[in-house]
Structures are given as C-alpha cells and as structure tokens.
Amino acid sequence: MQSNSLSLPAPRVAGDGGPDAERHDPVLSVRGLRTDFVTAVGTVHAVRDVSFDLRKGQRLAIVGESGSGKSAMAMSLMGLVPPPGHVAGGSVKLNGTEIVGLDDAGISKVRGKDIGLVFQDPMAALDPLKTIGSQFVETIRVHQDVSVKAARKMAADLLGEVGVNDAARRLSDYPHQYSGGMRQRVLIAMAIANDPSVVVADEPTTALDVTTQAQVLDLLAKICDERGNALVLITHNLGIVEELCDSVNVMYAGRFVECTSTEALFASPGHPYSKALLDCVIDPATARRGALPAIPGSPPDLSVDEPGCPFAPRCPIGRDQERCAVERPQPRTLSNGAVVRCHFAYDTQGETA
Amino acid sequence: MTSTLLKRLGVALATIFGASIFTFVLLRKVPGDPARAIAGDTATEETVAALRQSMGLDDNLFVQYGNYMGSLLRGDFGFSYSTGNSVGTLLGQRLPATLELGLLSVIIAIVAAVLAASFAVYSRRRWPDQAVRAASSLAMGSPPFWIALLALMVFSIQLGIFPGPEGRLSPGMLKPPNITGMFTVDSLLAGQWGTFANAAWHLILPAAIVTLGPFAFLSRLYRNQLRGTLRETFVAVSRSHGLRRLPVYNRHVAPHGLLSLLPAASLLFADLLAGSLLVEKVFGWPGIGSMTADAIIQKDFAVVQAVLLLAAVLYVVVSLLADLLMTAADPRTRVGAR
C-alpha cells in the first residue's frame, strides 16, 4: 500500500470566502485513509489510501459506482465503520484534531458536533419507538447543556427551518407518521443541530421519491450556505454534482482516480472512468430509445490488490495497454488542474481519445 | 379498536371451544377403560358395565360432550374418581402451589435472561456471548426432571443445603393463613417470618430448575433481538449524533428487545401455570403438574380434561393480553395515534 497523498486542485471557496488563514486551514483533512473489512473469505480493502482536504464552506462530491468504497469512506470519517470493518490506517483530522484511534468517549464528543452525517435511508434512520421530539431533544442535549424545554424549542425551530409545517406539534409524532422526504428533512435538521463544521451526506436522496429528491438536495445546499458548513456529498448521480458541488473526487476501487473542480470535470473529464461515468448520464432531451449507456464489466474484487490500474480491464484505452496491466498509475496533475491516476488520461480540452 | 378487540375475543373463544372438543375426543379414544380402572382388576364384568353406565360412558360422544359442557358452564368441572373430590376443589387446592412456583420461575427467567443477554451483547469481548449461548444450549438440552433428581442428590442429600422432596413446607410446619394460597406471600402478609423463610427455602430449588427452559429460550431470543437491533440504521444514526454506547443501548436497543420478549414470556408463563409435570412430581410439589401426572396414570378423565382445558384457556387469555399490551406499547400499532 502506498502512502503518497494526492495533492488537490486549486482552492475554490464557495460563498464570499474568508480570511486567508481560514482558506488554507482545512476543516477536514484526510491523509492515507485505509478501511478494511475482515471476512472469513479474506480481507476486503474498501478504502485504499484516500487523501483530501475540505475547506470551510466547500462542497465536495464523491462519486463512483456501488462498491467503490464511498460509503465505507463516509463511515470512516465518522469513526462508524460497522464490524467486521475497521480503519486500518491513515489520518482524519477535524478542525486540526485527529479522530482516528479515539476511544468511544473521545469520538462521541466529535460526532454530531464537528462532523454530522446524513444517512442514505431515512425510513430506517429513526427509532420507531420514540417520538421525533424525544430523539431530537436527545441529539441536542448530547452536546449542549440546555434544559429539555429549551432543547424542544430549538428542535421545533430547526424543524421549521427544514420545512416541516406545524413543527412544534409534530415533535410529538412518531417516525411512521412522517413521509420519507419529511424524515430526511428531520434527519438533516438533527445532523446540523449541533452546528458541525462538516456535513457528510451519504446518498441522501437515493431512497427517496424522485419528486422529493430535488427538494431535499436544495434544502441541504441552502442549509450549508446559510450556516457555512462544508459538505461532502456522496452520490452516484452526476446531475446532482453539477448543481450542488464545486469540486468532485471520482472514486474507483477504493481510491480517488480523479480530483477536480466540477466545471473541469464536466468540460473535460481526465480519467477514462470519469468520462465513462459522464457518458452514462442520460439527458432526457437528447436520449434515444434503445440500450441505456453503461460501463462494460463490473468493479473489481476489493479483497485483492493487483498491480496495475484497477480500471484497466474495463477501460477503452487501458484494455490493450501492457503498462496499465502491470504498473499502478501515480497521481499526476493535468493542464486544467485535475489530479488523476491514469497513464493515458485525456489531457488538454478533452477529446484526445 | 372495539371491533379489533371483539374479533380477538371471538378468535379466543373459538380456540377454547376447539381445545375442549379436542381434549374430550382424544381422552375418550385413548386405549384403557376408566370404569375398569376405578372398579379394580377383581371386579366382575357386570360391576364394570354398571359403572360405565352410571358414568355415562355408554352414551354416544355427542351426548357425553353435551353433558360435559353443560356442567362446565354451571361451574362443575366433574368428579375425580381417583381422589374422591370434585375437580373444582382439587384445582382450588393445587393451583396456588403451581402459581407460586410458576410465577417465581418466570420472573427469574426473565430477569436472568435479560441480564445475561445484555451483558453478552454489550460486552466487546466474545466470551460472555459464548458463555451465554453455551449455558442456554445446556439448559435447553437437558431434561428438567433429570436435573431435578441431580439437584436433589447434590444439594439436598449430599450437601444438605436445601430440603428434600417434601413439598412446600417442612413437615410439622403450619400453613400460613389462606389469602392468596401462595405460602411465601401469605406468610409475609401475616408477618410469619419463620414460615416465609421455610416456604422460600422449599421454593428455591424447584423454581431454579423450572426456570432453566424458559431462561434458555428467552436469553437466546433476547440476545438475537438485541443483535438484530444493533445493526439497525437508527442505532448508527444516534451514534453519529454523538451518543455514547450505553445511552444508545439503553434508549434505542433494549426497548426493542424487551418488546419482543413480551409475547414469548407471556406464553411461557401460561405454560408454567399449567404445571411442570415431572419437576413437581420429583419435588413432591402439590401443584397442578403432579396432580395431572397422577390423574393420567389413574385414567382420571375429569381431572386431565379440566387441566388441559385450563391450559388452553390460560394460553388464549395470556396471549390475548400480551397482544393488547404489545399493541399499546408499540407506537406503530397503537390505535388512536394520528
């Protein structure tokens, strides 16, 4: 396993930007993160040497297919990798504090307060036996020394802020009395209740009705804008990325294969995998009937770490290249600022291949 | 709400009715002639035939069942030939002893199962879980009457810590005044500390043995339920909000486990109220179980029938209550919520 870290594309700060110090001190700094799942049939290396920085107010998308290690990475940031998984190495610094290796007491102080997580499935994310109000009050009082009454008031205000009507009364309702979209609003409100500097959203709209997806995403963007939280959005929906995020890390087989700005990615994807992902986006205006675009083959088995580029067998360029099969590509910077792991990345303005 | 309740009640009554038919027919179709059993081996055929006639055993099954149900509804459970008492009187004498044993056993089983399974699941080490699973396999796999004999041999005969199979009190000990019929409770109510100690001392060993099966079942059930709940997303969500392990466990994991324990524990309780036949027999415990065991051997239909029906009624009533409790405890099924 290499321990080199990816350098990042030129800093881009959303909003009005802060003082210089703020711009250069990342709120979240990940270096060489590795996460393994130890199973009976072997160790699955779900996250392999991931590094990135997140600055205040930045909105970073992490995209990739299912099984590319996105969710395992999100859980690693929270110190919540479910067994038999564990963070096998690397460093995650939140506002300068290392959180890898903290004990239960230490990491519990950080969770919810410095970093908040919005989960994939709002239908399963609330305790069905407890009212929304009691779960919300509990969440607030973990980090804030306020009375139950005051916490309830704060909860009602937050629920109102995320668009739950008649919030004070709906605190007494149980989760099953909320729709999926409403539950995700509640969960977003809970995730930001203690004002974390980083919000990680792990496919927050995948389980939702298409009609509510846009509302929830707009809400997430609005909240982060107003409160200045940095956002890590994990998704496989590139349409969302273009609207919501200022930079993108493309993940494949547990590694970032391209780190770039959203504009640069959509204008000229550098890595063949990024290009393939973009080619899969269906534009209803121009789509023709027939087979949907797809990337041939499937993601590699993450329990083995073969030499060479993991995307090579599926790659339009690397398929036939000797070099891609034997030599692991190292990060390099393209002319548009994107950092890619590819021997034959499309450079200049795109149409090289 | 009312219609659900009525529907449940209807089903309950139908179940009891079905059970009454089943036990009635079954007992009359098993080999062996109760009239012959009562009259004895030396009685002549004529005596037996006359007895059969007087017991109504020659009538057809429908008539017999009609008579049986008729007297049941009048509160007459029949007559026990082997003991010379009415079955109603017998039940009245025996039920408190079984109730006392069953109640204590179920309480021990629930408390022990919850504690053991919680420790097994909450601990980060593996041995507590393995120990609890092994204990529950052992308890589930060993026949209670054999354990009862073994326990008597070790604790009563060898060590002399607990009394022998002499029933609920030492010989010569006066019964406490009859309030509930449960000696430990009655003696406490009457302030007779010596009697209480003696009754409790007699109760511990049989209760510990009767509790083994329910403990095995409940601890396994509770453990699996807890482990399942721990994998739920909402548990990870509350962890992500910064809640530590213990509060998450207490507020979001244990309640789900306890909820699932309710119906199982209530059915086990109903089961125990019908008496544990062999354990009561081994300890000379004068409860429903030992009475039933004797009645089966004596072909005393009226008693066996009454006990089986009692068991059916207990099952139905207790599971109905458990259902209603579950409905009230789970907000998803609670009626009246918006």
Automatic annotation (TrEMBL), chain A:
UniProt topology in membrane: Peripheral membrane protein
A Gene Ontology BP annotation from the UniProt entry: peptide transport
Coiled-coil blocks: none
One Pfam family from the record: ABC_tran
Domain of life: Bacteria
The keyword Nucleus is annotated on this UniProt entry: no
Gene Ontology molecular function, alphabetical: ATP binding; ATP hydrolysis activity
Record-level GO cellular component terms: plasma membrane
Subcellular location: Cell membrane
Keywords of this entry: ATP-binding, Cell membrane, Membrane, Nucleotide-binding, Transport
Gene3D superfamilies attached to this UniProt entry: P-loop containing nucleotide triphosphate hydrolases
Protein family membership: Belongs to the ABC transporter superfamily.
Name under which the protein is recorded: Peptide/nickel transport system ATP-binding protein/oligopeptide transport system ATP-binding protein
Lineage: Bacteria, Bacillati, Actinomycetota, Actinomycetes, Micrococcales
TrEMBL record, chain B:
InterPro entries, A to Z: BPD_transp_1_N, MetI-like, MetI-like_sf
Keyword flag Ligase: no
Record key words, sorted: Cell membrane, Membrane, Transmembrane, Transmembrane helix, Transport
Membrane protein topology class: Multi-pass membrane protein
A GO-annotated cellular component: plasma membrane
Compartment(s): Cell membrane
One Pfam family here: BPD_transp_1
Annotated signal sequence range: none
GO molecular function, one term: dipeptide transmembrane transporter activity
TM stretches of this protein: 9-27, 101-122, 143-162, 199-218, 258-279, 301-325
UniProt cross-references to PANTHER family, sorted A to Z: DIPEPTIDE TRANSPORT SYSTEM PERMEASE PROTEIN DPPB-RELATED
Family indicated by similarity: Belongs to the binding-protein-dependent transport system permease family.
Record-given protein name: Peptide/nickel transport system permease protein
Organism from which the protein derives: Arthrobacter cupressi
Taxonomic placement: Bacteria, Bacillati, Actinomycetota, Actinomycetes, Micrococcales
